[in-house]
Amino acid sequence: MTDLDDTLRAQLGRVLDKTAFTRMAGRGELTRYDGKVRDCYIDKAKGERVIVVTDRLSAFDVVIGLIPFKGQVLNQMAQHWFAETAHVAPNHVVSSPDPNVVIARETRPLAVELVMRSYLTGVTSTSIWKAYEQGARTFCGHALPDGMKKNDRLPRPILTPSTKAPKGGHDISVSKDELLAMGQVTPAEFEQAAAIAERLFAFGQARAAERGLILADTKYEMGVLPDGTVIVIDEIHTPDSSRYWYADDYEARLARGEEPRSLDKEYVRRWLAEEAKYAGDGPPPPLPDDVRVEAARRYIKSFELVTGRAFEPDTREPVARIAAALGAS
Question: How far apart are CA 68 and CA 47, in angstroms?
Fold first, then answer.
């Protein structure tokens, strides 16, 4: 067993499931909101949001387990990309005082996920591949050619908006016209957000190619500042929001009808779908330790390949460490 394996297995009992802070140094009243992966503490007086990125793993719109160091990888990779793309689009980052924490500007989140796709792929019931396999030749308003195979490259990158379902619900892919008809996003906000998504995706794909990777698809979340400016929030180009494949054997595996080698949580989705026969309905099955460790290894490998830096895990008990960094209790 390698040193990394030993570290990952030792961390299985020290994963960050949740936090429950009620106060933080230098802050007044906090409003608490928990997402699938993040615990958020909103400081309305300062116009800031303290985001704790946990080790929870979400797939099929359900929290399915805890992966060692996932929160650290996710947050640090997001911070890498936010810094790299600051000249491409404004974002919400103020600071990152702990490996699992980012302090961000508070915004009014847009009620849409901006999903950019370059490949005909996916395993969920709402994926572009499942729609195509069932005979659809239009997806979110985009015409798709006949004769394509799973994991083929699309003729061009496309934006496929998705609704943001309440906690416990399922997101739905929609066209631009359908989204605007819902009235939750204005045409001006959508145009700003779409332009940002397209620029970021092009930048991310170019950077990934330099590292021997394919950024097959990704999702962005946007928020609106009080002055009406649309900025990027949440995360960017992480293994949770993005599908990364190795470029060197993509063509050969495609020709053999094999799945591309992936760096993202698609590994866990496939295990759930193929081994556990689970697709998001009902409570998820427990993830075996071997699956959790392999998922963690892939998250770390993704960080190192994409950033070009070695991942340095902080193995201290996470809640106490984060509380000390934030002066929280």
Answer: 32
Query: CA nearest 221: which of 78, 56, 33?
Result: 78
Contacts of 270 (CB under 8 A, 6+ apart): 123, 259
CATH number at residue 272: 3.30.470.20
pLDDT per residue as tens digits for the range 119-141: 999 877 779 999 999 999 999 99
> Is 64 in contact with 282 (CB distance < 8 Å)?
no
What's the pLDDT score for residue 199? 98
How many Å apart are CA 33 and CA 180, to the nearest integer? 26
Looking at the chain, list the stretches that DSSP marks H as alpha helix, in order from N- to C-terminal side.
Answer: 3-11, 70-84, 128-133, 176-182, 187-210, 250-255, 266-270, 289-307, 318-326
Give tens-digit pLDDT for 238-278: 988 999 999 999 999 999 999 999 876 678 888 998 888 89
**173, 196, 215, 193: which is closest to 77 by C-alpha?**
215
**Please, which residues bridge with residue 81 across strands?**
none
Name the residue among 205, 235, 209 with its Cα closest to residue 217: 205
**Which H/E stretch holds residue 306?**
helix 289-307
Q: In terms of Cα–Cα distance, which of 259, 177, 188 is closest to 222?
A: 188
As a whole number of angstroms, the distance between CA 196 and CA 328 comes to 35
H or E element: which one contains 238? none
d(CA 235, CA 65): 20
Contact 144, 153 (CB under 8 A): no
Which helix or strand (DSSP H or E) is residue 172 part of? none
Domain that holds residue 50: 3-326
Domain count, the chain: 1
Its pTM stands at 0.90
Residue pair 24/328 in contact (Cβ under 8 Å)? The answer is: yes
Q: How far apart are CA 285 and CA 268, in angstroms?
A: 12
Q: HSE (CB half, 13 Å, CA atoms) of 238? A: 25
